[in-house]
Amino acid sequence: MEWTDDSINKLRALWAEGHSTAEIGRRMGISKNAVVGKAHRLTLEARPSPIRRDGDKTPRRRQVRRVQGSTLPTLAAALTPMPADPPAPLRAPQPVERPAPVLRAVPAARPAGRITPCCWPIGEPGTRSFRFCDEASVGGKPYCEQHSALAYVRVRDRREDAA
Length: 163
Prior knowledge:
The protein has 163 residues and is mainly α. Among the domains are: 5-41; 110-163, no CATH class. 29% of the residues lie in helices and 2% in strands. It has a two-stranded antiparallel sheet.
């Protein structure tokens, strides 16, 4: 925006009438921040804060409660044993349902050296059936051969698409 003498006079008049910066901006077709910036550069009278607390015009300072001395417990208090809680009443043990383990055939040959399991997630996280693939990972990748084929897809050359 280019500030002309007319626009500056209009800004001063609207400012003197007590309009908000947003309202002045709407009436002049400019942003609120443009109004604030120009008012600051023109050193117009500062506006009072629109935030009022209980009708009091003077801002209050929050009282900070100061504590004297250390807030940590003493060593003697930390070393005193806590009173023992009475034992909880015994309940009959409840049977726990566990899913049957999934058995897989172990591959005949695994690569020599450090064997790390495949970390491909199987199932929905947070459910009992969630687990990771336990095949051996290949070629320094985090996945087994089957999951590597899914995870790593060869990028096509753009020249293959041409023609």
